[in-house]
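ok so for the tutorial part 2 we go from a plain amino acid sequence to predicted structure tokens. step 1 is just haveing the sequence, like this:
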Amino acid sequence: MSNEEHTPSTPGTPGTPDTAKAPGTPDAPREPQRPRGATAAAQPAEMTGRQRLVAGLWPPRVTRAQLVVALLLFGLGLGLAIQVRSTGDDGTLRGARQEDLVRILAELDDRSQRLEDEKTRLDAQRRELENSSNQAEEARKQTQERERQLGVLAGTVAAEGPGITFTIEDPLTAVEPDKLLDTIQELRAAGAEAIQVNDVRVVADSYFSGEAGAVEVDGRKISAPYRFQVIGKPQDLEPALNIPGGIVQTLEKEQATATVTRSEKIVVDALRPAERPDYARSSPQ
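step 2 — the prediction. this is what the tokens look like for a chain of 285 residues:
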């Protein structure tokens, strides 16, 4: 019989001795089992839809093409806003009656026609100068005609022709000089060619001064009734004074009475002395 002792081995582990465990010793804690396929690293929590939207929008990622398109759209919107505003602000004649609007339109058509007639006349003069066999004689005639026209405008020669007589009665002496100046401006805008107020010729450099009841024109005193003798087309002059909000309605607010009378022959014979310029000389050009 052999004296050698055999060391028992743990089943399933060849050659490894079993570790004896004392009775009553608690078992060592076991690690919790991970789900199959789980990794050691913690998985990130899944993002909500709002969080994904915020993450996609901020911080903004703007390309050069998007910036150019945004600037172009901004400029287009600004231009449209300005156009709409400028179109919507024009309400000057919004409250006018239909017949007043028709009268204003007719007056504008008449002014356009006058400009066309003037253009036609000047074209005819140019053709006469180009085609005349005696251009020197034709030029002399036109120079004399031009001198006469300038004399009418300067008030150095008398003039006659169709026009109107505009009379202002001022019983309360409430008409200020600026109202008479507004009358002159309205008449000039309507095509007046020669104007005389009482016995004073009104020209381009005429001025009104003084106060109500003591009005002066070019330093010469005039008194009511104020009588305007105007040469021009009556169909243009009268509507210009009676336009809504025009000079006639303004004078009526001052308790003044304004009347317009058309005539086929108005004589403007008040003259102004011809003034010789001190420094200006005619130029050959």
